[in-house]
Amino acid sequence: MKKLLIAAALVAAPALSQEEPQGQPSPNEIVAQAAPSEWVAIPAQDLLVMTLAPDRDGKPRRAVIQLIPPPFSQPWVANIRTLAKAHWWDGLGIVRVQDNYVVQWGDPEAEDEAQARALPEGLVATSDDDYTQVAEILLRETPVPSSKRRKSGTTTASAREKDLDLVATGVVVRADPYAQFSKFRAGWPTGNALDEISVHTWPVHCYGMVGVGRGYSPDAGSGAELYTVIGHAPRHLDRNIALVGRVIEGIEHLSSLPRGTGPLGFYETAEERVPIESIRLASELPSAEQPVFEYLSTERETFARYAESRANRRDPFFIVPAGGADICNIPVPLRRVAQAD
Amino acid sequence: MKKLLIAAALVAAPALSQEEPQGQPSPNEIVAQAAPSEWVAIPAQDLLVMTLAPDRDGKPRRAVIQLIPPPFSQPWVANIRTLAKAHWWDGLGIVRVQDNYVVQWGDPEAEDEAQARALPEGLVATSDDDYTQVAEILLRETPVPSSKRRKSGTTTASAREKDLDLVATGVVVRADPYAQFSKFRAGWPTGNALDEISVHTWPVHCYGMVGVGRGYSPDAGSGAELYTVIGHAPRHLDRNIALVGRVIEGIEHLSSLPRGTGPLGFYETAEERVPIESIRLASELPSAEQPVFEYLSTERETFARYAESRANRRDPFFIVPAGGADICNIPVPLRRVAQAD
After folding, report:
1. Mean pLDDT lowest for which of B34-43, B298-307, B315-324?
2. In the prediction, which pLDDT does A341 show?
3. How far apart are CA B174 and CA A155, in angstroms?
4. Which chain B residues are Cβ-neighbours of A261 within 8 angstroms?
């Protein structure tokens, strides 16, 4: 009897039997063939290493977060580096786990002025004007010609294949309910809006993206309270909360935590919270302990082939290629290239 | 200091302080105001109660699955009822947990003909022709007039608001990379394709949807091996794997399980597998133990208002309404109306 399975999202299907049919390469097989020059190193100052207390069996739990680079970083990423250098999160904890939504960490006593941990010197104040600023980034880029844009509602299967265009400047996804179009830029998924002379662009809330918790506007958050997405992309948060990075390793230590039973998935007792042993900038670790990661350039040929294959699966398991993909279903390939521990 | 939080996906934001601003109602507040007549009872023969072994602290773990009704059910749902009536899953287990993808359960020995549990009599054989059949369901419905369809790539913010149309026959989402349009039908999210005379429709892989594991085509799976989605909607599986239902309660007992470390997230040892104590059709339970659930009609006014508010958040937390939503980010409201245990 053949092993029953469903197709792999992120790893190549293993050879299960002699019966496995031959077919086109899977998305991961395409990535595996990328030239070394297509992989881009992530600077150590853009990596955060988050060490949680070991689990009940004593197994270590560590996650690595990549901070978002300019022009998307805005004041929050600088604040996060300041907080990490001050070892501000050490001894705090995971405070909230809401199913199909987010895991959130920070100071459990943040509400209580007498008990709250003091923030370090040098944090930059933020406001919701900063979101506007993010949405107003103007790129010196030729706008997509109107002849290339989505034309008509009388869409046929072959027209839908064009929803994902491999334009000279990168991979563009046309059908996006949350933006005029979405596009990968320097390794990050973005939403985009065109006017006649410029492109407005912003990072989007895909699985694993990290953002800044905040109160009601105009409070835009300091960066001390962070969350990561552990469910279906909550794209309605785009441009409403600052995105500052993404978990690139170890998200399973966050996504598999017990869900909180309080409102919004907050843990109700101190015992439920998972202690954070430390959060460190990789650049502050001894060089032998610094993790080294690369992402696959989103502006090179292999990524375009990978994205196209995510949108039109032709590897043996599939019967009907979709003819399209949403930007959060085309995760940017990342890899660890040096093992520090 | 105000409690730092990020907006709730599925529950209303609690009153945190005197400072909370007044605003438009949230999606959940809209649902709370639905008339009793807008809630539709789910028949007991469409509910499966899945009882896992208690967790390490002795807490019970139970999930409820709603089976998909005709015309989407096809042969698989009948097979699942046959398997449940035979108590076929009792004593088997969760065999696979892949992060941001699926939890899968069934017979861990399915690969080994000598060890595999025999399937009950009466299962209907399926093949990938059945998928074609699903895609070929023709509905007696007036096709969306071409004047109402997406018109042009020169999309403006106001045009994008129309991506989510509240047409007479229900809520339609225009911008869907995986279908010409998506639409709610009798409580289920569907993908759709039009030709000149008919509408082809199929259920789609949102968070919590349950599908049938299979091998390579033409094997379409018997229904004995099932999975549920625990991450971003893997819509590339639509029309490639049979969908048979959705988890409507207790998915946190599945989504928070430790991830498997084998290929595709399979557990590598028997000890890791969570035992299934039983899976029962609710209609076979004593009536006092039968759970009773309702879903909010997707063809009535409150659901249309709810969907519109999911696409354009105006409750106090939000600054920029998105102007659209993808179909998997508009979860159909469900509620338990009688507590059986």
Report:
1. B315-324
2. 44
3. 11
4. none
Which has more confidence, A176 or A50? A50
Which of the two residues, A27 and B323, has the higher pLDDT score?
A27
Give the pLDDT of residue A162: 39
Determine the Cα–Cα distance for residues A270 and A263; give it in Å rounded to an integer. 15
The gap from C-alpha A309 to its chain's centroid, in whole angstroms, comes to: 20
Q: Do A237 and B325 touch (CB under 8 A)?
A: no
Write out chain B residues lying below 8 Å of A19, CB-based.
216
Type of residue numbered B277:
E
Tell me the pLDDT tens digit for each residue of A167-219: 445 688 878 889 988 999 999 999 988 777 677 889 999 999 999 999 888 88
| CA–CA dist A236, A193 (Å, integer) | 16
Higher-pLDDT residue of A177, B95: B95
Answer with the residue of higher pLDDT: B133 or A77.
Answer: A77
Residues 6+ apart with CB under 8 A from A305: A30
Which pair of structure tokens corresponds to residue A324?
């399209």
**Residue whose C-alpha is closest to residue A200's, from A135, A278, A112:** A135
* CA B265 – CA B218 distance, rounded (Å): 24
Comparing alpha-carbon positions, the chain A residue that sits nearest to B207 is A232
Q: Which residue of A5, A24, A164, A214 is the best one to mutate when testing the B interface, meaning the one whose CB has the most B CBs within 10 A?
A: A5
**Residue B175 distance to chain A (closest CA, Å):** 5
The average confidence (pLDDT) of chain A is 84
Q: Which of these, B319, B265, B249, lies nearest to B95 by C-alpha position?
A: B265
**Residue whose C-alpha is closest to residue B108's, from B267, B220, B215:** B267
pLDDT(A318) > 80: yes
- The pTM (predicted TM-score) of the whole model is 0.88
Q: SS3 for chain A, per residue? A: CCCCECCCCCCCCCCCCCCCCCCCCCHHHHHHCCCHHHEEECCHHHEEEEEECCCCCCCCEEEEEEECCCCCCHHHHHHHHHHHHCCCCCCCEEEEEECCCEEEEECCCCCCCCCCCCCCCCCCCCECHHHHHHHCCECCCCCCCHHHCCCCCCCCHHHHHCCEEEECCEEEECCCCCCCEEEEECCEEEEEEECCCCEEEEECCCCCEEEECECCCCECCCCCCEEEECCCCCHHHCCCCCEEEEEEECCHHHHCCCCCCCHHHECCCHHHCEEEEEEEEHHHCCHHHCCEEEEECCCCHHHHHHHHHHHCCCCCCCCCCCCCCCHHHCCCCEEEEECCC
A291 or B320: whose pLDDT is higher?
A: A291
| List of chain B residues whose C-beta atoms are within 8 Å of the C-beta of residue A233 | 232, 329
User: Is the model more confident about B99 or about B13?
Assistant: B99
pLDDT at position B2, please? 37
What chain B residue is nearest to A264 in terms of C-alpha separation? B8
Answer whether residue B215 shows pLDDT above 60: yes
Q: One-letter amino acid identity for A282?
A: A
User: pLDDT for B239-255, tens place per residue?
Assistant: 999 999 999 999 999 99
DSSP B247-266: EEE-THHHHTSPPP-SGGGB
| Contact of B265 with B89, CB cutoff 8 Å | no
